[in-house]
Amino acid sequence: MTFSPARSLLAFLCVASLGLLPAGHASACECIDPPWGMVGWWRGDDSPADAASGNSAIPAGGITYAAGKVDAAFVFDGVDDVLALPVAVHSFMHEDVSIDAWVKVDDLSVSRAIFSTGDFRAAQANTAMVLYVDTDGTVHWTIRLNGSDADTIYTQSSTSLVPGSWYHIVALREFQNETDGVRLYINGAIEDAQPDIPDLFDLDYNGNGPWSTRHASIGVYQLEVTSDIYNTGAGVGAWFDGEIDEVELFDRVLTDDEILALYEADSAGKCKDEEAGDEDDDGVLDDEDVCPGTLFPDAVPTVGLGVSRWSDMDGDGVFDTIWPSSSVSPMPFTIDDTAGCSCGQIITALGLGGGLTKFGCSTGVMKTWVAMQ
Question: Is residue 163 reached through a cis peptide bond, with omega within 30 degrees of 0 on the bond before it?
Fold first, then answer.
């Protein structure tokens, strides 16, 4: 990226504005590119649409919109307003997951749910997650595995939210990190971290299994979805009262630097123009992607991955290889290294074929391509 004095000044003013600008004063922040791996983005811009994966929320109870932290936000009345998320959202929540949102709560006479999925009731053998604000203003990120109190992970903020003020909240789970895999952040700073517990269930939604009928939702605790879209069955509650903006879901763990950047972007938020997007969802933004339309897993190799050959076989953004046991394996190539190009696309771009197509890109071809970027 080319150094720009104007951009640097704006970045400085953005950070300075986070606690110094008068109420109602516009932020000096520039928007930032959305972090890669975003699979849900409910902006609240006068629409329940999902700008990341097309899984639009189903508004119920009378959801309205008002000026939010970043453009417009969802407004919840604390009685029956909710955004029910499609079943497909569950498929993004197995193993690593990050959730973030800007939140302004207006009333704390009862607990207020920001995001929830699954069923927390006793003897419900399912995986459940809830991010909520308690009556004392503390934020809680709780994960209950296997319907068991013994397998429930609790995190709690030391910061208490003040009604009427905006806060940026991030909750994440780093699957099977038994040191600090479940973490909670407010305004870019970590508040609590607890070890993850290896889950015994397949976390993919199957209609009857670990997620039961309690769908993911924004603004209520353990929403039950039926043919009537939703109902207030047993255990449903903690209706949010206030505004929620820029709700995002990632199928990976955000880094501390990314979390801080999301907070410091302030009211500028994430860039919403198409140039800052990632249309092929390969983790490389469109304005930096040399190979649009990348598909993973890669169709190459057609026969099988050869020794010292490279290809992203599982679509995780890291090129796989089989390295001779007699030598030390090198650092793997990533999709960032190749500027968004798969092995198959590299072969096409360089006019190659033959054995590369059958067995994967050689180390020499990979190094040549990376050096060209």
Answer: no
Q: Could you say which architecture CATH assigns to the domain 27-276?
A: Sandwich (2.60)
Interval 266-280: pLDDT, tens:
999 998 754 446 778
Task: Sketch the domain layout of the chain as residue ranges.
Answer: 27-276, 286-372
CB 247 within 8 A of CB 102: no
Task: Convert the chain into a string of H (helix), E (strand) and C (coil).
Answer: CCCCHHHHHHHHHHHHHHHHCCCCCCCCCCCECCCCCEEEEECCCCCCCECCCCCCCEEECCCEEEECCCCEEEEEECCCCEEECCHHHHHHCCCCEEEEEEEEECCCCCCEEEEEECCCCCCCCCCEEEEEECCCCEEEEEEECCCCHHHEEEEEEEEECCCCCCEEEEEEECCCCCCCCEEEEECCEEEEEECCCCCCCCCCCCCCCCCCCECCEECCECCECCCCCCECCCCCECCCEEEEEEEEEECCCCCHHHHHHHHHCHHHCECCCHHHCCCCCCCCCHHHCCCCCCCCCCCCCCCCCCECEEECCCCCCECEEECCCCCCCCCCCECCCCCCCCHHHHHHHHCCCCHHHHHCEEHHHHHHHHHHC
Q: Would you say the pTM of this structure is higher than 0.85?
A: no
Q: Do the beta carbons of residue 264 and residue 192 sit within 8 Å?
A: no
Q: Is the pLDDT of residue 187 over 80?
A: yes
In contact, 129 and 139? CB cutoff 8 Å: no
336-350 pLDDT tens trace: 789 889 999 999 999
Report the alpha-carbon angle 198-225-150, nearest 5. Answer: 25
Q: Could you tell me which of 97, 129, 92 has the C-alpha nearest to residue 113?
A: 129
Task: Give the mean pLDDT of 255-276.
Answer: 86
Q: Which residues of 212-224 are buried (b: 16+ CB within 10 A; e: fewer)?
A: bbbbbbbbbbbbb
